[in-house]
Design goal:
It is built from six helices and no strands. It is mainly α and 116 residues long. The radius of gyration is 23 Å and the shape is elongated.
């Protein structure tokens, strides 16, 4: 997970350095603006990739530890959470579900509460 982030951050820093070095150059006037854009795009792409992959790994780790979603759906107190969702709101119900099941990913908790 970290290797691609490091590579993309390195590419962004390299593009920034090239754009600064070629700022006064008359060789290719289009190259510094392109490098400035790439110096921004590469790190952003690395962070997006890392976050998406991290969320996926967190969800898979939770499912490996606590079993499939169907078993989890049967084990939760659906009546109490449904009441909490209807009376106090979805946010309170999600917070309560995550309090009862530590480590549960937020997207999974929201999906379960909305399905009640």
């Amino acid at each position: 997970m970290y290797a691609w982030r490091i590579v993309l951050w390195g590419a962004g820093i390299a593009c920034l350095a090239v754009s600064v070095l070629l700022l006064r150059s008359a060789i290719a006037p289009w190259l510094p603006p392109l490098c400035f854009v790439l110096a921004f795009v590469f790190p952003v792409a690395g962070e997006v990739y890392g976050n998406v992959r991290g969320l996926r790994e967190k969800r898979e780790r939770y499912i490996r530890t606590f079993g499939p979603v169907d078993a989890l759906r049967q084990s939760i107190d659906s009546r109490g959470l449904r009441w909490m969702r209807d009376e106090k709101g979805v946010m309170k119900a999600v917070r309560e579900l995550r309090r009862r099941h530590p480590g549960m990913p937020l997207d999974l908790a929201v999906m379960l509460v909305k399905e009640l």
